[in-house]
User: Fold this.
Amino acid sequence: MPKVQRKYDKGEKRFKHEGHSSKPKIQFIRNRPRRFVGKCPARMPAQLRERLLSEAIPGPIGDRDIDYPKYPYVVHDGAIYEARTSDAGTSYHGFPYRGKLSKKLLEQLRRMAEDKKCLEACDEWIKRHIQTDGRQ
Assistant:
């Protein structure tokens, strides 16, 4: 099967992950402390979103029988972003991530942050928003 080029598709009328400030953040839902939404910086340019998607590291696919990355991850200005596909790997939308990541993926993301000169901010994001999954 030919490899499909990833493209960014925010989707029409999809505003859930759009923030109002210049920084990415995790916004908790009022009266539901376990529910949260990753909010991107306001007016994040389409060209930047495309570039970040092209740099993204594919997350593990587990036991799924698919030939595309379901959840690619990237670091930008210290924040970790996750992208998701809704059409079998043709297009993706992304947002700041909070949750569990494997040690191996975290090591790769930290190397990316080091290359991008934002390791200190990335370590702070990890400390505040990431749990280490016991898997490699």
